[in-house]
């Protein structure tokens, strides 16, 4: 029974390390900032989540000590990474108005971001 637990923990460590490697490679090699956002928010979040779950299982199964710190860190990471990526992408769109011409039209008056994306706001900021 213990070898199954060790096999599961080793599998989670390998999967986590693979996702961290892919996410780090994507962060370094993708061409622009908007594409680079996907690497740390998707792949590395899954990678570190798998490593933290492997750590939690190790302490629970092998040592017999329940550890909830890893679970709390994983939940916090899975909640904050997408929110951070969303805010960074909105800030990038605000800082580079030339990118907004490539975006599809939206029905809302605020546009793609909440500050400074409507034509009236853009004219106010340019004046």
Overview of this protein structure:
This protein has 127 residues and is mostly helical. Helix content is 72%, strand content 0%. The chain has helices spanning 2-29, 33-36, 38-62, 69-95, 119-126. 16% of the residues are buried. The model has no long low-confidence stretch (mean pLDDT 82).
Structural class: mainly alpha
Instruction: Report the major sheet.
Output: none
Mean of the pLDDT scores? 82
Query: In what range is the share of β-strand residues?
Result: under 5%
Q: How would you spell out the order of helices and strands?
A: HHHHH
Our measurement of the CA-to-CA distance between the termini, rounded to an integer number of angstroms, reads 71 Å
Q: Got a strand count? A: 0
What is the C-alpha radius of gyration, as a whole number of Å?
Answer: 21 Å
Unreliable runs, pLDDT <50, ≥5 residues? none
SS field, number of helical segments: 5
Quick tags:
127 residues, mainly alpha, 72% helix
What's the gist of this structure?
With 127 residues, the protein is mainly alpha-helical.
Task: Give the SSE layout.
Blueprint lengths: L1 H28 L3 H4 L1 H25 L6 H27 L23 H8 L1
